[in-house]
């Protein structure tokens, strides 16, 4: 892969949830450009394998906000600063079978912690370091953020609410003069064939599972490897896909949200 001008010199990159799915593909693309990449996830076996590839791979559960903060600080300490923060890890939070009211509230709170509160904590923890490097902060959103929560199926509400809060928070974060110098980019990858989708298909409520199965059958799910490569291009070129030129040349400004559609897949 050709190294672009912004990536001249080794870049220091932190990606939450880099063991699989979209995050893994973004991480692999950064590795190919000789960047120093730190990732985290919960599953010990996957992190053990990742340690062969990434300079930093840690078992972290982002639903514990103190772990989210200490991982961020460790990465900056060990890499000597940070150029890219990719807030990728996310869960759908579908209910698995029958649950009590208490279990329902715990599940919902968990999804909101992982999808919204952990990115919030990490952004607070790393903003001075990102300002110093004039770095890039990327967060992963979804079309669910735009849905009216009252019209979303009950089991998808925590996901929709957390992504909506995430977009609202980072839109304000990008506008805050305190954060000048940081390029904040939201990415909505569209439907991608990953574990998150599989969980909805297999474990989700009948309603959600049917929609997820239909997407799979209709082949609307994109390859995470391809989507990761597109995201890598957007964030390293600091530009969006330009249909006119067929390249990543469309100016991007802090606070923009890029929603990846089929035009990007050429
Ligand atoms: N796939 C889609 O169609 C789609 C659509 C719109 C937006 N997105 C967003 O894109 C992002 C990536 O999704 P994906 O589909 O690539 O998901 P994925 O394949 O399920 O991968 C999620 C990654 O995050 C890690 N993770 C999950 N919970 C974690 C926690 N509590 N602490 C630390 N790491 C955790 C997972 O590892 P462990 O499970 O081992 O922790 C894994 O590495 C998410 O924010 C998602 O909301 C995805």
Automatic annotation (TrEMBL):
In alphabetical order, the GO MF annotations are:
oxidoreductase activity
Q: May I ask which residue range the UniProt record assigns to the signal sequence?
A: none
Q: Which organism is it from?
A: Candidatus Nomurabacteria bacterium RIFOXYA1_FULL_35_17
Family annotation (PANTHER family): 5-KETO-D-GLUCONATE 5-REDUCTASE, ALCOHOL DEHYDROGENASE, PUTATIVE (AFU_ORTHOLOGUE AFUA_3G03445)-RELATED
**Quick check: keyword Protein biosynthesis in the entry?**
no
Say yes or no: keyword Oxidoreductase present.
yes
What are the record keywords, sorted?
Oxidoreductase
Which Pfam families does this UniProt record tie to the protein? adh_short
Q: Which Gene3D superfamilies match?
A: NAD(P)-binding Rossmann-like Domain (3.40.50.720)
The family annotation for this protein states:
Belongs to the short-chain dehydrogenases/reductases (SDR) family.
Protein name per UniProt: Short-chain dehydrogenase
Q: Which CDD domains match?
A: SDR_c
């Amino acid at each position: 892969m050709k190294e672009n001008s912004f990536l001249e010199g080794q870049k220091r990159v932190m990606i939450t949830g880099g063991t699989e799915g979209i995050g893994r593909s973004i991480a692999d693309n950064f590795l190919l450009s000789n960047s120093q990449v730190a990732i985290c996830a919960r599953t010990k076996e996957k992190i053990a394998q990742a340690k062969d590839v990434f300079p930093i791979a840690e078992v972290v559960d982002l639903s514990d906000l103190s772990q989210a903060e200490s991982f961020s600080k460790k990465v900056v300490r060990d890499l000597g600063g940070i150029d890219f923060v990719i807030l990728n890890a996310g869960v759908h939070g579908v209910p698995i079978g029958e649950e009590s009211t208490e279990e329902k509230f715990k599940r919902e709170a968990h999804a909101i912690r992982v999808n919204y509160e952990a990115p919030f904590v990490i952004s607070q923890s790393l903003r001075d370091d990102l300002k110093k490097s004039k770095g890039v902060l990327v967060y992963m959103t979804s079309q669910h953020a735009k849905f009216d929560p009252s019209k979303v199926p009950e089991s998808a509400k925590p996901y929709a609410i957390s992504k909506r809060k995430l977009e609202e928070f980072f839109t304000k974060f990008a506008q805050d003069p305190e954060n000048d110098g940081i390029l904040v980019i939201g990415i909505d990858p569209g439907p991608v064939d990953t574990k998150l989708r599989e969980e909805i298909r297999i474990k989700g409520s009948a309603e959600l599972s049917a929609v997820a199965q239909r997407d799979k059958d209709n082949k609307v799910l994109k390859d995470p490897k391809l989507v990761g490569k597109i995201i890598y291009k957007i964030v390293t070129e600091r530009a969006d896909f330009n249909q006119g030129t067929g390249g990543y040349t469309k100016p991007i400004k802090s606070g923009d949200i890029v929603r990846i559609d089929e035009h990007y897949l050429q």
